[in-house]
Each structure stands twice: as structure tokens, then as C-alpha cells.
Design brief:
The chain is an alpha+beta fold and 106 residues long. The chain has one domain. It has 1 helix and 5 strands, in the order αβββββ. It has a 5-stranded antiparallel sheet, with helices on one face. A hairpin with a 2-residue loop joins strand 4 and strand 5. The radius of gyration is 17 Å and the shape is elongated. It holds the Pfam family DUF3301.
Length: 106
């Protein structure tokens, strides 16, 4: 009985890790596409997890909402922040903080 519980815990950890890797890949692609859309430079080619929440999706199932932070530059001198909000594997919003206001892409 104890070995079954340990296997279930290990399987849950492995599933969560694979789920997180896939979500980060989606966030990286969304970040790069958003920067390309506004003609900005995607800095560091990376995104870092800012927040993780357990939410109820539109279908009523439980899922994770992740917000990833990335950096971009419009003039190659300044470093601005952007955020990608992902519900499950679906991109909810992409926020780009700019000097003259925030841009929200879907």
C-alpha cells in the first residue's frame, strides 16, 4: 500500500513537471510572437514564472493559471517587462508594458 502511494506521488510530480515544461514553451512562443508583432527585440530569449494559481476553467474543470514574465526592448537601450497569462495550455492574454501605456494582445 505504501509503495502505491509513493508511486502516485512520483507520477503526480512527473506530470506536473511535464505540464510546466509545456506551458513554458507556449509562453516563450507567445512572448516571441508578441515582440515580433510590435517590432520589438525579445531580450534573453526566456520567460520566468511569476505566479501559479489553481483556477476553474470555462468548462468547469480545475486547472492551472500561470503568468510568465519576459523582457523586451523597443529602442535597444531600455528593458521593458511583458507578461503572458496562460490558462492550462491556452494563452489568455499577453501584456506589454510600454512607456506610453500597456498593450494587451490576445
Amino acid at each position: 500500500m505504501t509503495s502505491i502511494i509513493i508511486l502516485l506521488i512520483l507520477a503526480s510530480i512527473a506530470w506536473f513537471w511535464m505540464n510546466s515544461v509545456r506551458a513554458k514553451e507556449i509562453a516563450l512562443q507567445a512572448s516571441a510572437n508578441a515582440c515580433k508583432e510590435i517590432h520589438a527585440q525579445f531580450l534573453d530569449q526566456t520567460a520566468s514564472l511569476k505566479s501559479l494559481k489553481l483556477i476553474r476553467t470555462n468548462t468547469g474543470r480545475m486547472g492551472f493559471q500561470r503568468v510568465y514574465r519576459f523582457n523586451f526592448s523597443l529602442d535597444r537601450d531600455s528593458r521593458l517587462d511583458g507578461y503572458v497569462e496562460i490558462n492550462g495550455y491556452k494563452i489568455n492574454k499577453v501584456f506589454l508594458d510600454e512607456a506610453d501605456g500597456a498593450t494587451i494582445l490576445k
